[in-house]
Amino acid sequence: MTGALRRGLLSGKRRLRNAKRHDERPSAPARTLQQVAARLKAGPASGLRPLWPQLEQHLARTGTPDVVVLLLGGQEAATAATWGTRLPDTRVHAFVRKPVDDDSSAALPANVTVHVARRLADRLAVLSVIDRPELFIDASRVTNDTQSSLRHLFFFLRDGGTYLIAKLSRVEPADPDPGARRTIARILQRVAVVRTMTAEARPLGKTVDGPLVDAVAAMDLGDGHVWLRKQGEQLLKLREWEVDEVLTARHGTTWGRVLEETPSSTFTALGEVHAHGEGPIASGRRTFELPAMRLRAYDRPTVSSRQVATYGDYVLPDTWRHPNQGTLHHRCLVYDTAYMAEYRAERRPTTRRELDGSFYYFDTELPDHFGHITTDVLGRYWGWVEAVRQRPGVRPLLSVLTGRTGMTPFQRAIFTALGVDPDAAEYIQPDEAVVVQELLAATPAFENPYYVHPLMADVWRTLGENLPDRPPPVASARIFVSRRRTGKRECTNTEEVEAYFEAAGFAIVYPEDYAYPDQRALFAQADVIAGFGGSGMFSMMFAPHARVVIIAGNSYRAANEELIAAANGNEIHYFWGRSLVQNDTERYSATAFRSDFTFDLAAYDAELRAVLRR
Q1: What is d(CA 560, CA 229) in angstroms, rounded to the nearest whole number?
Q2: How many helices (H) and strands (E) are present in the chain, helices listed first?
Q3: Which of 167, 344, 473, 540 lies at 20 to 30 Å from 187 by C-alpha?
């Protein structure tokens, strides 16, 4: 989330304390909103007066809500006071654009909290630390802010909650944003159209406002206003930098604690990159911004298959492969907004169990995947060492794929070499949610393509030293790591490239043909390691002395090899071929990333010879 959201957290704690004061006072006799407004001399009450009867009918039908959120204009203290007086057992949060004067603030009921929240980020800061509302009323002017609020804040409602946009009648001539109402109208039109379709007829894939449309259970369009009823339980995404403050603001100390922390820092690569041709990785030594490294202990979180960890209605940062970034995606979750997610229907757990004891989170979004286990999972090993010190008897926790009963042989070899007993592991089955008594989880030290922590060099050294010592399956100081046909990132002239390197004295190898200890021996013996970019190259981690040559298409934006070289000190050369699908923007394109490429040997011959002859 934005810096403004983070800055709002501390004030959010104070607002929560104020909002809960009503629990200590007796309930007042019920009056209608109209009667309360008249008694308080609330004036126009934010233009809601025409809707008082409908709002009373809504309250009579749904019962007294626990939480109501009002999005108002100006000061509007009188409107907030009206709601707080009418619903003395409800926590009322009012978003206003200008500070409320001292007299008006002092007159507010104890169950009302007024937040000066001019921007969407300010409202998100509050909503992230309060209980989910059953009723959200947008009584502000219709501007682009209205559509932003609908698109983002609607998802904060509880399942079955109601969202009222109170001002849709017309756009004033002086309105600075006359297109806003029409935009809201288009959103509502999509809701109306899609709701009439069968599930089979609905658009497939990503559509504009698709998650919002799917979350609307019912819509009632009135004269200048619209009622929307929400369905489903969406979860708030948390990043590494905000999780501790958000959970503490909402739950106090009951969520858990930080067991170990090292401050953020910078790290300049020990190995130098030499780029040949135009590609996403440039020459030089990158300086990485390293996040604070934290080991946390969560009390009774819920985990499900493929690295989904939640606490209440939050998605914990330990779910994400890139928990320090602003955009968070996961294969098991629908990307509703930048802030909200929900389970995909086919990934929603169907069973639930409790798990006693302390467990360390070694899970991955892609169980059994060699590349992700040797980067994402190894990147969290540092926390295991501290977890064992503080929690003797802690056990590893990870997912198992359908049909499997335990780890793959290579993962078992890795865990054994690092002192993590595979036989002590607890496995999350594909269909279950597991409530863990205590879950220990660590900030990753390796986050492709963003950073690598220098401590990873020690992890790789420890791993290599403790794998069984075997002779290399192919004896050669110069190896070329090739790729078999997989349907993605294939070099269209692979045979030509292999022949070129073979003529230069390289043994052509396929690391996946060998057991993991043999792969270590294969790479550790080499003085020069060349090959096609990808997970086959990752065992270069066992050869910090080697010169490395990567051949890849220029749409290949992964930087795993660069990160390994940065921590280990390898001299690394990138030779960029041309991907068949170009990625000409800053945004990630899966199609471009996976596309095949052609490598022009003739164009690079002189540069290759200069690198290889040394």
Answers
A1: 45
A2: 19, 30
A3: 344
Give residue 531's region: left, alpha or beta (phi > 0; psi -120 to 50). left
**Whether 306 contacts 365, CB under 8 Å:** yes
Top CATH class of 456-612 equals alpha beta
Task: Give every CB contact of residue 35 below 8 A, 6+ residues apart in sequence.
Answer: none
Q: Which residue has the higher pLDDT, 437 or 580?
A: 437
Q: Which amino acid is at 163?
A: Y
**Does pLDDT of 429 surpass 90?**
yes
CATH 3.40.50.150 domain locations along the chain: 3-234
Length reported for the chain:
614
Please give the average per-residue pLDDT across 222-245, as a whole number: 95
Q: CA-to-CA distance for 440 and 470, rounded, in angstroms?
A: 34
Confidence of residue 587 (pLDDT cuts 50, 70, 90): confident
Residue written as tokens 């757990």? 349
Tokens at 48, concatenated: 């809601």
pLDDT tens, 55-82?
999 999 999 999 999 999 766 888 999 9
Rounded CA-CA distance 165/138 in Å is 5
142 versus 261: which is more confidently predicted? Answer: 261
Question: Can you read off the two tokens belonging to residue 614?
Answer: 């040394």
Kindly report, residue by residue over 109-161, the tens digit of the pLDDT.
999 999 999 999 999 999 999 999 999 999 987 677 788 899 999 999 999 99
Q: Does domain 3-234 have CATH number 3.30.70.260?
A: no
Q: Which residues on adjacent β-strands are paired with residue 190?
A: none
Distance of CA 279 to the CA centre of its chain: 27
Please tell me the distance from the alpha carbon of residue 183 to that of residue 224, in angstroms, as a whole number. 15
3-class secondary structure for 561-594? HHHHHHHHCCEEEEEEEEECCCCCCCCCCHHHHH
List of residues 6+ apart from 431 with CB closer than 8 A: 305, 349, 350, 351
With H, G, I as helix, E, B as strand and everything else as coil, classify residue 301: coil
CA nearest 304: which of 199, 434, 411, 208? 434
> Mean pLDDT across the chain, nearest whole number?
90
State which H helix or E strand residue 355 sits in: strand 351-361
CA distance 44 to 53: 15
User: pLDDT digit string (tens) for 85-111?
Assistant: 999 999 999 999 889 888 888 999 999
**Residue spans of alpha helices (H) in 135-242:** 144-153, 180-195, 210-215
Q: Whole-prediction pTM value?
A: 0.90
Tell which residue, 319, 299, 322, has the closest CA to residue 310. Answer: 319
pLDDT for position 201: 65
DSSP annotation of 284:
B
pLDDT greater than 60 at residue 315:
yes
- DSSP SS3 for 545: coil
Q: What is the DSSP letter of 471?
A: -
Non-local (6+) Cβ contacts of 101 within 8 A are 75, 77
Note whether 149 and 137 are within 8 A (CB): no
- The tokens 């998100």 sit on which residue? 124
Report d(CA 196, CA 488) in Å as an integer.
39
Helix, strand and coil in the chain, % to nearest 5: 35, 25, 40
Handedness of CA 299, 305, 310, 316 (dihedral sign): positive
